[in-house]
């Protein structure tokens, strides 16, 4: 079977953290681009990107990175995407496509859009994938396989440019869907932003109790709490920017959540077991749906490993030499 | 190396779901007991327990199960433990130890304690371990390895009986800690009950939106939401009973959580990125602590598997035969 020709000749990655470095690895593995040029704000990251061989070329500025690139993907936190767009604008090649990977799309369209020159395509994107780790070492080529990448092209964008970016994401394993930016922000507010806010909250709550020690919280976390701590270990800069830029949708979803938790709180206070049972039964169906469409593993406990049973005999008086 | 003699001659399991069947498997694997007799309320479960060979004997009633047993572990939902204790009381062997595995301990001491006859030891226990699956097929022998089992013996219990039950849990892999029942209920309210309540709530919230479809919630769940659905797929009967019986501690923790989420909500409303950043940085440390003491895996994304990149070339116009 012959290998496809690269979709783009030269990919410029601006920011090489978990997502940027995963794109680099996947694009290379799939032969999706002819060459990769990368840049990052910090010298340490640029050095590490070079050491890891993630790009054919590592340059010091975003302006230099985009020279001659036909695909530019901004992989910085959402809060600085506007400034990056402004910086790269004069250096973009005619006919190039500019995209991003931000978790918020309304603000990206507002902040980056006005800087994109005539003759350059602008196709914001959001791959809904990640782990709790950050930085160029954390990425891997399979991160996007069977995850969804949402494209939110502003009205009037060149359809061929949109289709080509969709083909790029498909080639590195993702499913692609197109959405209006505001709808994206509402969907992600409930499937991603609200869960993160709640996880960050409860982990903070647990850490500030006077009646339960931190050591107890850690030791007995397998009762459920530890699941929240993974999410609450995500990159603070990225998540600060998300909540600041997707304020309205997050506050809307928070309002709904607060109403619902008030109802369940009332049921607990009243000892209303029927309401609790009915609610807890309904939520099981959602889990089944997610596993069925391959968005999570059916393995118990996320497939977490278990150590084997200890082979040592017990100390006396419980051990025996018989 | 010689195998230790069994700690108990005859273990009676009343209720054989995820926890009961895991105890059966682990006790057998470790030679912790001479024989196992099991019972379950439903005929279907009793039949399945026999098919799986989880017990040496399967009987129809709890009263019959405890005859001649020197260790009785009640593995039913918390809400029926009192009734079970009342049923088995006249049939308990002198010198036997009665225990349980309930996630709430204050109500267990109150509901079971008065029924335990003189000359029988009462040592309530809570292994902090589980998965989102239920029933005798869901259990496995390694479930308790390196998890904590909390004993909450009422004052004045025979220390040798407490130590022996601790040895049993250690033999099947658990770490053991002793606590007062009320303190247990407070600790678990934050490390287990509140996380479950919040997960049940947000999964319900997401399912009732008019603006975001269920299909969208499922597809884009990898942004964080799917982590919550696992917990919200836990057994509804078990969790109804937990919230009804640990009302005070859960309401106390809910109050703290609500205060904290109000503070973060205000920071979002005001665009106060510094407060958000500071909070999100603090919570990372908790995750590190949990991984360090071996209560969760350091693998990204809980070690969830990723499919490999798709080998198929793309359709024209993106494919090439060169």
TrEMBL record, chains A, B:
GO biological process, one term: tyrosine biosynthetic process
Residue stretches making up the Prephenate/arogenate dehydrogenase domain: 9-298
Region described as Disordered: 296-322
GO molecular function: NAD+ binding; prephenate dehydrogenase (NAD+) activity; prephenate dehydrogenase (NADP+) activity
UniProt key word Amino-acid biosynthesis: yes
InterPro entries from the UniProt entry: 6-PGluconate_DH-like_C_sf, NAD(P)-bd_dom_sf, PDH_C, PDH_N, Preph/Arog_dehydrog, Prephen_DH
Gene3D superfamilies, per the entry: 6-phosphogluconate dehydrogenase C-terminal like domain (1.10.3660.10), NAD(P)-binding Rossmann-like Domain (3.40.50.720)
Pfam families reported for this sequence: PDH_C (PF20463), PDH_N (PF02153)
Pathway: Amino-acid biosynthesis; L-tyrosine biosynthesis; (4-hydroxyphenyl)pyruvate from prephenate (NAD(+) route): step 1/1
Catalyzed reactions per annotation: prephenate + NAD(+) = 3-(4-hydroxyphenyl)pyruvate + CO2 + NADH
Top-rank lineage group of the source organism: Bacteria
Keywords noted in UniProt: Amino-acid biosynthesis, Aromatic amino acid biosynthesis, NAD, Oxidoreductase, Tyrosine biosynthesis
EC number(s) stated in the UniProt entry for this protein: 1.3.1.12
Recorded family membership: Belongs to the prephenate/arogenate dehydrogenase family.
Protein name per the record: prephenate dehydrogenase
Protein species of origin: Undibacter mobilis
Taxonomic lineage: Bacteria, Pseudomonadati, Pseudomonadota, Alphaproteobacteria, Hyphomicrobiales
């Amino acid at each position: 079977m012959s290998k496809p020709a690269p979709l783009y000749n030269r990919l410029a990655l601006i920011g090489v953290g978990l997502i940027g470095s995963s794109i680099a690895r996947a694009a290379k593995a799939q032969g999706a681009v002819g060459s990769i040029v990368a840049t990052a704000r910090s010298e340490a990251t640029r050095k590490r990107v070079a050491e890891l061989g993630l790009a054919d070329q590592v340059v010091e500025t975003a302006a230099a990175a985009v020279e001659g690139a036909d695909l530019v993907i901004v992989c910085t936190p959402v809060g600085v995407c506007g400034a990056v767009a402004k910086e790269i604008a004069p250096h973009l090649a005619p006919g190039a496509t500019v995209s991003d990977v931000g978790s918020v799309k309304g603000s990206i369209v507002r902040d980056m859009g006005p800087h994109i020159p005539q003759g350059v395509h602008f196709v914001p994107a959001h791959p809904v994938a990640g782990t709790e780790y950050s930085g160029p070492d954390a990425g891997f080529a399979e991160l996007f396989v069977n995850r969804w990448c949402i494209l939110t092209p502003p009205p009037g964008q060149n359809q061929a440019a949109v289709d080509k970016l969709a083909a790029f994401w498909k080639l590195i394993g993702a499913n692609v869907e197109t959405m209006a930016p505001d709808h994206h922000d509402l969907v992600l507010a409930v499937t991603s932003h609200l869960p993160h806010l709640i996880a960050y909250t409860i982990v903070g709550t647990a850490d500030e109790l006077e009646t339960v020690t931190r050591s107890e919280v850690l030791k007995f976390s397998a009762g459920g709490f530890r699941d929240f701590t993974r999410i609450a270990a995500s990159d603070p800069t990225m998540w600060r920017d998300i909540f600041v830029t997707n304020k309205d949708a997050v506050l809307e979803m928070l309002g709904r959540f607060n109403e619902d938790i008030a109802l369940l709180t009332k049921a607990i206070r009243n000892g209303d077991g029927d309401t609790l049972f009915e609610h807890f039964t309904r939520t099981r169906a959602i889990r089944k749906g997610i596993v069925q469409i391959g968005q999570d593993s059916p393995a118990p406990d996320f497939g977490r490993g278990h150590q084997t049973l200890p082979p040592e005999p017990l100390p006396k008086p419980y051990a025996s030499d018989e």
